[in-house]
Design goal:
The structure holds 2 protein chains of 2 kinds. Chain A is mostly helical. Helices cover about 75% and strands about 0% of the residues of chain A. Chain B is globular. The chains are: A mainly alpha, B alpha/beta.
Chain lengths: ~260, ~300
């Protein structure tokens, strides 16, 4: 019993039909979805980037706009993976009972979760790439190294998709998600160097920031966009991969406990 | 021939409450089997245990020659499920629902698309392939859910309250389709609390209450074993006082609210007495499965 509950997630290509189902739904609503992905971060970016940018001058040798743009690639990726695994996954699990329909076929909950995770990463990738394209169009991608931000975006999506599925497994209703969004993600966005360099923070808080996945995402993406290799790249990758693996494992166990027990 | 489903000693608790308390079930291949019980009796949980969707605390189940839950995936590949509440994909058309569902069985799109006309004919949804789910009536959605359960050409179908919430026309259409499925040799396992449904469709039924099977057999055998063949329902002013008198006229008298039920093999004495009493209204009818059900599970309201 317990060995079934705590077993590592069974990874199989059977998740693909689940992913294709989500993709087919998305295709029908693609335009508003893409606009939603882009509009929010772009409004913030242009408002803060140009508005605050004129007051702030340069940060670390780049314009504030470029500094902020790199941060927003990471944070909009985070939010895309998060919203998909909170609200959308919850409505499929709890409201529409789509998951129940799927596991009545020869599919397992592990297949469903892997499909959700892969889909969240897909949405995150779309959001991150949209931001990268806009940034490149404005000339803020300094070299081809910027393309290396794409796998970084995938990694950020995996980390926040895994964490989002943990929250989904614990949720009693949509209201539950506002705790995670306002008490976890909003402070994380403030502490992870999206809006200002982490070095501005007191030492203790800086140390805390280094435990946050978004911090490591920003630390990878920003140098790549300005054309340099990130320092401590392997460390950043390891932390994000650790959050991804631990998050998805925990999400799997908690979801099994919620639905299979 | 090995049974299509064999469950032994299934148990399942949620918290301190045991919902399924040692259920044994055997369903032969090709039969239509009904699991009856009031709300909260443990029917749906029993079905989920048999499908390997939840883990039992104790007991074993074997579904179409596969141990469940260990080999539930292999078993479910040969099974169709009609859940209690429709969970069709609201964003898809009728045809898309079938194609997408077939993919979960590993069936290629072209293969399902070739079968869609047959499936829609079965569901009485000819020409609705491109309709959106929101435009379908409750009965149509139910029939589409049934058609969706057939995409993999299953040997066995589990149906959790297949006609709950449907109007009589829609219900009769579903019954007719279910008979067609048994004629094709498929095994049907359904839960219901409509006695009429079980009487019409099921060769064998089991009555479940408080997590236990309390009676099992053919509807007719169970009725003759547990209840008298005739019933007179009596209501009207003075019914209560008349009830005392009726005790001498029929072997079993029950009261539910303002109505008195007289059960007997021979009800002529009751009828003779009632003929002289204009104030009391009465109905004489043969006893049915509902009377059996109420006798075995009681008349208390279940929530």
């Amino acid at each position: 019993m317990n060995s079934r509950l705590y077993a590592p997630p069974a990874l199989s290509v059977r998740f693909i039909p689940v992913w294709r189902r989500h993709f087919l739904v998305w295709r029908k609503l693609a335009l508003p979805s893409i606009l939603g992905n882009l509009a929010d971060p772009l409004i913030m970016l242009f408002g803060l980037g140009y508005g605050l940018g004129t007051v702030m001058g340069e940060i670390g040798g780049t314009s504030y706009f470029a500094f902020l743009a790199a941060g927003f690639v990471a944070s909009s990726t985070m939010y895309a993976a998060t919203f998909e695994t909170l609200f959308s996954a919850f409505s499929r699990m709890h409201v529409q009972k789509t998951w129940e329909a799927i596991v009545n076929a020869p599919m397992t909950l592990d297949d469903v979760l892997l499909g959700e995770w892969a889909w969240a990463v897909t949405k995150a990738l779309a959001a991150g790439v949209c931001m990268l394209v806009v940034i490149a169009l404005f000339g803020y991608a300094k070299s081809l190294l910027a393309l290396a931000a794409i796998p970084a975006v995938v990694l950020i999506g995996l980390a926040f998709g895994g964490l989002g599925l943990v929250i989904n497994a614990l949720a009693s209703g949509y209201d539950f998600f506002s705790y995670y969004l306002t008490l976890v993600l909003t402070p994380m966005m403030m502490l992870s160097g999206v809006f200002f360099p982490v070095e501005q923070l007191p030492g203790v808080i800086q140390a805390m920031a280094m435990a946050l996945p978004l911090y490591h995402g920003v630390e990878i993406v920003r140098p790549l966009l300005s054309g340099t290799l990130p320092a401590h790249l392997l460390l950043h990758i390891a932390v994000l991969a650790g959050y991804a693996a631990a998050g998805f494992y925990l999400a799997t166990v908690l979801t099994r406990r919620r639905l299979l027990q | 021939m090995t049974p299509a489903l064999q469950a032994r000693g299934l148990r399942k608790s949620y918290g301190t409450q045991e919902v399924v308390c040692g259920v044994d079930l055997t369903v032969a291949a090709g039969e239509c089997f009904g699991l009856l019980g009031p709300n909260g009796a443990g029917k749906t949980t029993t079905l989920k245990l048999c499908l390997g969707l939840i883990d039992p605390d104790a007991g074993t189940a074997r579904l179409l020659d596969h141990e469940v839950p260990a080999s539930a995936r292999e078993a479910r590949a040969k099974v169709g499920v009609v859940p209690q509440f429709d969970n069709l994909d609201p964003d898809f058309t009728v045809a898309e629902n079938l194609v997408v569902y077939g993919r979960y069985f590993g069936i290629r799109d072209a293969q399902i698309e070739a079968r869609i006309p047959d499936l829609l004919e079965f569901a009485g949804l000819n020409g609705r392939a491109n309709s959106r789910i929101q435009t379908l009536s409750g009965g149509m959605k139910r029939r589409l859910t049934l058609a969706r359960a057939l995409v993999n050409d299953p040997q066995l179908l589990f149906m959790d309250e297949p006609t709950t919430g449907l109007d009589p026309q829609a219900r009769h259409l579903i019954w007719e389709r279910l008979r067609r499925l048994t004629q094709e040799g498929r095994t049907l396992i359904l839960t219901t609390h409509f006695m009429e449904e079980a009487e019409r469709l099921c060769r064998r039924i089991a009555i479940m209450d408080h997590g236990r099977i309390i009676a099992e057999g053919s509807p007719r055998a169970l009725s003759s074993e547990h209840i008298e063949s005739q019933v007179v329902e009596v209501h009207g002013p003075g019914c209560e006082t008349w009830m005392e008198r009726a005790r001498g006229l029929a072997p079993r008298i029950e009261r539910a609210g303002e109505t008195v039920f007289c059960y007997a093999e021979e009800v002529e004495p009751v009828l003779a007495d009632l003929r002289g009493r204009g104030e009391l209204a009465y109905l004489h009818r043969p006893a049915n499965l509902e009377d059996l059900f109420l006798k075995l599970t009681g008349r208390d309201l279940r929530d």
